[in-house]
Queue: 4 jobs
Job 1
Amino acid sequence: MERPLVCQHLTASLTGPEHLADWSRVLLRHHRDIQTEIEQIVQLLKHPRCHLHRIEARLRRLSRAVLMHLELEACFLDPAVREVSGSDGEKLQGLRAGYESLRKAVMATADFLQREKLSHPALTLSAEQQDAITHLMNEIHARLEAEDRDYQQFREGWTCT
């Protein structure tokens, strides 16, 4: 698959396994930003009169952040891990599974929002809707925590054995 031109320019100076620690640090920082977004959504959900349109704006913002994060992983971390572990390496396959899991969670969020806007005219979120959004936030949070462990290893100098 051809990498986008912007990806080629961004990675030109920081390629190879020696930069795993650098990119791991960047991606861990991005995880913290995404976690802050999740926490803000959870706080909004606690309000008894939480409106679908307000939460929708936050969820869309979170979705954009996660999709950008996936692009960063694909541009930077994936090639570096491939060089270290080979195209069939366990770490590389684990990262790719994580990408897919996060992408599916984002798509599920978008589908959920669209379905709820079309099927429920009430603006205030029901308990079921709040539970569904909380479940989605937990799913994204869990995936990020799993990646955090891998990124921490890369940052500390993970090497292929």
Job 2
Amino acid sequence: MLSITSQYLARYRRLADDRSGSLLPVTGAQRRFVLMRSLDPSGRPDLVPMFFAFPHAAIDPERLRAAARRLAARHTALRSRPTVIRGTPVLSVTADPDVSVTRPVLLPGESHADALRRALASWDPRGPALRLFLVHDAEREEDVLAVVLDHAVCDGRSLARIVDELGAAYGEEATDGRPAPEETETELAAYRDAVHGQLAAEEKAQTPEATAYWTDRLRAVHAHAAPPRPARVPEGAAPSGAARARLPAPDEGVSFPGLLDACRAAARELYGPDRAVPLGYPWGGRPAGAEPVIGCFLNTLVFPVDTGHGPGSQVTADEWWDDLDRADVPFDAVVAAVRAAGSRWTGGLDGLLTVDDDTRRPPLRLAGVEGREIHVDGRPVRGPLAISVTQGAEIRLRMVWDRAVLDDETAHRAFDALTRALHPSDHALR
């Protein structure tokens, strides 16, 4: 029987034969994002926004727009639009990306954060994958720049390069320049090679042994969060809540299994004991030998978080290492295999965990002026909750949750349990 990746490639080739090179295949990671968007009643895509505060009037919007257009024109993923043709997810490549700098006008009573949330909520998936929004924060006399990408064209490992190259393009004197055709073609060839290499790795990974492993591993999971009930969102409140803390960093940092065990403590507060809670996390990289192209290559792995008193951190570590041996099996193939074995799990996740190293995220500098990265909370989130961990001189924790699914009091109890599991003493700085 053909693997899901083999079936996808066969469908893609039939489409590509009719389109004279304007379509590119997508990785398993991209398939997940594109199909989730197509199944969403509102067609809402997953977005990756980065927010930077600059001194007021320090940014030249036209110069910024020209820089963003040069950046998008250079990188195949950024000048492509994710779409679904005849049920097949693909990237449609455009020759001349039109990246705008939108300046939302504040409505009466709105803050700059309200205006940005409104702008992102109105995202049209038919437009460019990279967009910029610039809004004035009158309270702090700053301008907040939002650099926003469709997640289907960008994973976390692409962000540092995007920030670095946007700043470099802003510093170029030729504000209306374009990359040389040979530069664009070289990048296109590198991107195509990387995607085909990733698909080959995914196809190779879908062995009967790996399928049986994931079927057994996730047989007992199903999403435990209640279906969204919008009436539970407090009147006038943003659709999501947020909590954050800063913790002293151990000399050796926090291991990923340690983070998974901390997520177990949070899940126990949310869903009670003796549950198998599906927690997703991105993992992977570009295929061996591929150029470090901008794109979406990180697979979503699922860890079945046991909310009982736990198997213990060593067992968690052993299980996680076993999972990584099958990490190239794409998410949709895992879900299909588990469903075929009779599981009630439909692929929904009760939480997402992302981990970052603050040394990998350079600040955005525009003509020598450094932007301060900030958060704009309250945006809609996909799934009940998402936990992000940034490691460096300290550990920065952040959790956001969907208020249509989790009430604030319960979410804060879960966040406190997460924090205590990572640092039992009472030294967290909120």
Job 3
Amino acid sequence: MRPLAESRAAAQRLIKALPWPLPNNEARRADAVLAGLRASGLLDNNVQGSSPAVAAAARDGLTSLAHLLDEAAPGHGAGRLLLLLLAEREAFLPHPVPDEHQIRARDAAAALLHLALWHTDDPFRLLAASMRVHAKEAHNHNSTGRA
């Protein structure tokens, strides 16, 4: 388990490393997201497309994005991330209106889920796993007071 500050930093590096907009071509998009995971430190540079390793990195990326959103709303980062993803998919504007920081986190999460389609049978199970990890890590942080 990585400290929350380290997880948030990884999420920030991931967001900065992803090109915006992402390429429309599926293969180029996947390559861009893999490069972003490597640049963020969430995926080891030595991994050459191993599906379990990429799926784990995508899960860790989603967890890190939820931790990042917790900064603005402690204890609500995972819920906010899910709401932002749902709002994008169903084309509605959530309340409160997301700021640019939240939109970038949402776009990174959507890119990770899209990549997960290539590396796991059930991206929603991967998303649920990331939310469980987030809850456990946030709980441990609140219990121990560590960052």
Job 4
Amino acid sequence: MQRFLGPSVALSLAAPLATQAAEPEQTSSLGGFSYHGTLSIGTTDMKPGPGIGFADVTFGVPLTSRAPLTFEFGTYLFSLDGKRPHETYAAFAWDGRYKLGALRPAYDAVLPSVFEDTAPFLAYSRAEYTRAYNTVEAMRRTAVPWGLSAEGSAGGFDWIVSLHDASKGDFRSASAALTWNGDSYRLMAAVESVWTSENDHVATSSKFGGTYLFDRGEVGLAYLHPEANERPDAVAWHMRVPLADRIGMEAMGEFTEDATDDAYGLAVDYSFREFGKVTIAATDGALHPGLHATYSLKF
């Protein structure tokens, strides 16, 4: 654990910079049709081929005006040369809280990869550290689970639970995630347990951490225990600070407890405000050094 103290100290020194809470992401709507997510396209020298695309999007279509029933569909997808690793979602939702179908696991609701916005190729290649076993099996081996979920809020708490079954992947899983929303911080935790279809327990993954929010920036720290995905424990951290009106700088990393699979980097971004942002990042770690250029749009 001593090798994790460096990132922790860096975050504690950066925290006094925080002065104002950032605005949470909102779901947009048009004529009852709702949508939210992230789209990005870019290039990196860490892989052959012309570039990489990334999508983490969800759409909702109301099915009737007499009841709060909608059909939701979306994807978590990476587009690389010669392959399209992804998980596809399609579910019926009642009141936006209760869902049935091929749905997002609760585990993925909090603490995503620190590389998703800055270096999507690393988020793809290291998905096992932060994504649910459900998601990884669908991306790597096309084992798409079906299930049900429920979510809600109570005071400052947001919660979500989900159950899944994948006949092709021969597994079942259950996961839960909690978020405590403070005035200028968020505390998050998630857990996922996996069984075989014969109900033999396989493994339990978990992650917990926090983010301190301020005007156009944040600092965050998380502990990752990706046992179900057969990866070593790791600490993930990131720090983003504004350099100018539309320019920001971010440092990020994932450091494994046994030091065998670290990744870290530094990025600078320019925001077009409602038209997204461009990010240039340099990374290093167990794989090899890399340069990344990414245009991303959140909506």
